[in-house]
Amino acid sequence: MTGHAGLWLGLAPCLAALLAAALSAALIPWLRRHALAEPNARSSHDLPTPQGGGIAVIAAMLATVALAAAFQPVGMATAAALGAAVLLAVVGAADDRHALAVPPRLVLQAVAVTAAVGALPADHALLPFAPWWLERTLLVLAGLWFVNLVNFMDGLDWMTVAEMVPVTAALAMLGAFGMIGPEPALVAAALCGAMLGFAPFNRPVAKLFLGDVGSLPIGLLVGWCLLDLARHGHLAAALLLPLYYLADATLTLLRRMTRGEAPWRAHRAHFYQRATDNGFAVMQIAIMVFALNGVLAALAALTIWLPGPVTAAAALAAGGGAVTALLTLFARPRRLSRPGPA
Asked: pTM of this prediction?
């Protein structure tokens, strides 16, 4: 990594954290008047809470990357990904204020994801045996699912923080060793810092929610960074880092579809939501998810430092086992100790 890139990789988290914290504090009074999330039967909160903290997160990330770009301009692919993230932030903001119908929301999301995928380098190939058009179509579908699953999983205080801080931190550190491109590494570092700046306001009990204005673009950008990691030959690592989110959201969707439920309907069927119903405290859930992501990040690093199919298979099996164990724990009612006889 060049000197400028390495310097900004270290500065980006600090600058983005400061900006996100300042913006979050400044936005809360305005959001309290204009963007309150009212509790309902499917909510995990009991009091009206302002949503839209994603404005601070995305603005801080963009400002940090823009400042770095003044010294080392970013390429077309990065510019397209950032532009697509802005489009998704606008869509999310509109959905936060006035719930959008599903068809136009999906169409706009597809436009954003297609723009990001379409700007990838011509030599970008994960499936060399497949036609170019087929791979790009599959990437758009996968990106659309990842954007939505991040949105689906943002339903509990600190949940997105517990997921995205370890994932983006791992991506930034891998970037320092050249395992992903310098520009995705910069975006990941800035996003990590922005999430850390937002975290104190979202700490249980949250004073501020991320909102769709944050979760949708975060999903796109993290998916884009993971795609770059896979493009550099580290597919196992790219699967391991978001494995908890992939498993919780995908299994929940499949379970609901088998019951004939509409996938887009709001619900409380995710494993982390069931955990709150089963007696786990919000902070306990966030800590366990954060710890699991630390384990997944270590396994991802192992597949990179000790490359080979055996290591990849063993790491994926270990990661899958760890995720399964946590999902199983969340799905079962918590056993509380009973007082013994007097």
From this structure: 0.93
pLDDT one-digit tens code per residue, 292-308: 999 999 999 999 999 99
The secondary structure element, H or E, covering residue 49 is strand 49-50
Q: Please give the distance of CA 234 from its chain centroid, rounded to a whole number.
A: 19
CB 91 within 8 A of CB 216: yes
Distance CA 208, CA 199 (A): 9
SS3 at position 50: strand
Please report, for residues 53, 133, 204, 267, the alpha-carbon distance to residue 43 in angstroms, rounded to integers and kept in the order given.
Answer: 17, 41, 14, 8
Place of tokens 């939501």: 273
Residue with tokens 């995710």: 270
Phi, psi of 209 (to 5 degrees): -100, 155
Convert the pLDDT of each residue in 233-287 to its tens digit.
999 999 999 999 999 999 999 998 888 887 767 777 899 999 999 999 999 999 9
Domain boundaries, the chain: 3-331
